[in-house]
Write a structure and sequence with these properties.
24% strand, Metallo-beta-lactamase, Chain A, 250 residues
Length: 250
Amino acid sequence: MRIAKDIYLVGDGAIRLSNPIDCHVYLIDGGDKKVLIDSGVGIEPELIIDNIRNDGFNPSDIDYLIVTHCHADHAGGCSQLRRELSCKSLAPELEAKFIEDGTDEDLGLPSTKLAGIYPKDYVYPHSEIDRKLGDGERIDADKYELTAIHVPGHSYGSTVFLMKGEGYNAAFTNDIVFLGGTIGLGNWIGSSLEDYRNNIGKLANLSVEGLFPGHFLWTLKAGQEHLDKAINGLKLPYPPPNFQQVHPSC
């Protein structure tokens, strides 16, 4: 489903585009190179592959699968999509070890299973990561360049991917910042308000137009306003609203 120039939504649980637990899974059409952002939970990954095909792309033409962080709804599908699509998997270096070999506790599964977010019998499919990305590292996507910006807070090394090219700046913010400047602070190992405060300033002055988070709505214009709201909110005496306060059913 095309949502912006060269950006497609090929997975999402909320609108049942794919498995109900999936985060937003984005496809970037860079021309000679195609990139997926996140992989869903790993249940029914064939639905994501079908959506890639239905949007007019050959699944075998996907070059990179970028996983933004280790949590299951974003990374659980990495292993199978990497195998089925014969693409390279990329992840932040602070998250890769957990995607490859993290314990349930490392991955935040006990509390999220208790909350009913994942089935109690869900088993995380660990995946090899082909390229581990440092803070500021760049990925060539032909017409576009993606830059990894490590913003720990939601998890150990949650990373925003800034896309530049064709006169347009977009940010794929996964669960770090959502529309309205809400944040993804959680009660699990790896989530830290202090880390949020120390790192959120990296998202200032990026001139972001499109803001594409891991859940809920996205915007095609004035995305920097939402980043700035989160940045300013984390300077105040109380944290900015958490996504659960705005979307209590999620």
